[in-house]
Design a protein that fits this description.
With 45 residues, the protein is an all-alpha fold. It is built from 1 helix and no strands.
């Protein structure tokens, strides 16, 4: 009996992202960027 997926098989278990960020890491990274920009803005008179 033929399969109804027409050969389109998706393997979700085999797919893993190589880089996974937690939301806390994103917030810390953005905060550091903002602080660096503010410091550079005040140093450039």
């Amino acid at each position: 009996m033929p399969s109804g997926s027409a050969g389109l098989v998706r393997y979700f278990d085999d797919y893993k992202e190589s880089i996974v960020f937690k939301p806390e890491h994103i917030l810390v990274f953005i905060s550091i960027i903002i602080v660096i920009e503010l410091v550079l803005k005040h140093l450039a008179i």
